[in-house]
Amino acid sequence: MNMANVAQALEMMAQGMAGIFVVLGAIALMVALMQKIDNRKK
Q: Is the dihedral of CA 33, 34, 35, 36 positive or negative?
């Protein structure tokens, strides 16, 4: 196993996980915004 390949794989995995967190954060912000806009009384 080449250490350069392992380092490249870890970097790619870190980028993928960062992308997932960015998308989840964007979805959470959209949901919070929708809740503020939609003020229906229940």
A: positive
Q: What is the pTM of this model?
A: 0.69
Given a cut of 70, the residues of the chain with pLDDT beneath it are 41-42
Which two tokens mark 22? 């960015």
Lookup: tokens for 18: 């960062």
34: left (phi over 0), alpha (psi -120 to 50) or beta: alpha
Give burial (CB, 10 Å; 0-12/13-18/19+) of 37: exposed
